[in-house]
Design brief:
Elements lengths: L1 H43 L6 H31 L3 E12 L6 E12 L4 E8 L5 E7 L5 E7 L6 E11 L4 E12 L7 E5 L6 E9 L6 E9 L7 E8 L3 E3 L2 E6 L9 E7 L2 H5 L2
Parallel strand pairs: 1-9
Antiparallel strand pairs: 1-2, 2-7, 3-6, 4-7, 5-6, 8-14, 9-13, 10-11, 10-14, 12-13
Length: about 280
Amino acid sequence: MGESRRWSETISRGAHSLSSWISTLRNIGWLLVLLGGLATLVWRSGGFAHPISVRFATVVFVPMLATAFFAGWTMASRRHARPEYDWESAEYEYRFDKDDPRQHSQTTRITIRANRDGVELFKNRYRWTGNGKSEITILTPRQRLLTEWSSREAGWRYYYVMLDHPLKKGEPATIHIQHELYDSSNTFDPIVAKNVIEPLTSLKLRVIYPESLAPVSVLARERVPSRNGDPLWRDVDRQPVPTQRSAGDVVALYEPRKLTVGRRYELTWIWDQTRKSSK
């Protein structure tokens, strides 16, 4: 099963990369056609045998040819440097079951906007510190989960979602995802976090606790990678987060005012030791 998922993921990425390169080569081809047309005109006017034609070709066509290849290379570089879509907003809501604290769920809403025509595949990753069942369900109508696979590197899991239709440039789309999680080994760390690895305008991290698992304290932390790598992250800002009670639950919400690529934003909390031991 895992092998077939990897094959599916590889085929999806390969097809998408091939489509991008075909588009780039098409643009370069039109430039070469233009140069070929100009060369044909010079040839028919007397050929390259005449000294004046040779000088003309040297002075005009060689720089134009160099310019064409440079323009094509620049277009290809820009096309592949800019992502297919930008993230606009992300909202994560994490819940604990009141009857079985090892039963967790996370609802995710991510809004993207296409940077080019034909965007139809959304790629994302997540890392869960629990150990047990982890199932993804796509809640947006007509979108579907293509594949999910685990990386041996730091425990990341990757998944791909096929959108309901190919997006046009500038068109937004929202991906609504439900995670069902069961921490059978009871290894979950009390953290819900988002690593911002691409520009993001809006982020919400919300944790909903049943009254029996209400935290003693909650912190909102903005973090950057440590210079020496031990620990992996260090705080640049940390603030206590007041909790609110709603319909018998306790709610903690973190909405960073400003988001910076390369930083990590997280809600972390402390449980009462007696409650934690009863999990």
